[in-house]
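Fold Annotation — chain and its backbone

Encoding — discrete vocabulary of local shapes
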Amino acid sequence: MREVDIRNLGLIHWKDSDEMMRDLQQKRIAGEIGDTILICEHPEIVTIGPRARSDGFSPPPDYESAPTDRGGGMTWHGEGQIVVYPIIMWDSEDEKNVKSVISKLEQWVISSLQLCGIKGYRDERMQGVWVDNHKICSIGLSFLRWTSRHGLTINYDTPAGRVEMVAGCGLDAQTTTCLTKLGYSEDYDSLCDKLISRCKDELNRNPINSD
């Protein structure tokens, strides 16, 4: 089984992580590194994907924002959200298209939440993971030579009203929220540990840690 290098970066500005991802993606394509997953948290910023820009979506005026080339619409980042960036070359038999990769990442989150006693599920309204009729996990990727950049977020304890005010493409404000608002208690370290523990079974990659 292929290994995946897990790097826990802690708090890092989104623009710094974006530069890091671009560099690691090129190195992964060149075979200079193996599959790598970055886990981190960002100061508050809303990233705006091509779909949101073409549809004229923008965050409220008091949010810092930045354009991004990942799939999807607007995504809030900030305190109380774990961010996971898989710099992975998806070339297994069950990773033949974007839909299958997204499904694999969704199942990884669902399986990890199950370890917390939380029932996560998919919803036809939008890709990602939902809990109690609210979206708590967003997924958006960018691919180059079938190697991914960007990734997924899980809102566990975001500041009151911040992520809720950012409407996604096709979703109303208040649809996206965090686990705390739904009555669940998890933190960054707990979710990180559970994601790592389910990496082997759900991503078919054996995690190693290079903190």
Notes: Residues 98-114 form the longest helix (17 residues). The chain has a mean pLDDT of 92. Residues 108 and 202 are 5 Å apart (CA to CA).
